[in-house]
Hints:
Blueprint: E1 2-8, E2 11-12, E3 21-28, E4 31-39, H1 47-54, E5 59-61, E6 65-66, H2 67-75, E7 79-81, H3 88-96, E8 106-107
Parallel strand pairs: 1-5, 5-7, 6-8
Antiparallel strand pairs: 1-2, 1-3, 3-4
Amino acid sequence: MKIAVASEKDRVSQHFGHCQNFNIYEVDKDNIVNMESVPNPGHKPGYLPNFLNKLGVNIIISGGMGASAINLFNSKDIEVITGAQGNVDDIAGKYIKGELASTGSICHQHLHHEECGE
């Protein structure tokens, strides 16, 4: 299983499309066996779900995300967790332990940093 956390270095980004990087955790039997940080290649409509799918990501975690991106991830059978906050390693660990649930935080406008998290 691969978990991607939209990040601003070691903090969860509040909008996945505008994040600085994706911290990608490879998990085997509830243990993180590898972590890599991948720079965000750019925010283009529909691009990031395909990009992360090609990297083998099964779960994407972010503070907020637009409805279109959520639908694209869902169409690729990638689980979406929104509403996350804090340190990315802690958040990945909480997900693995089953302690992290999506709040359904959806960004309602494009170019919407102020709208994320509502």
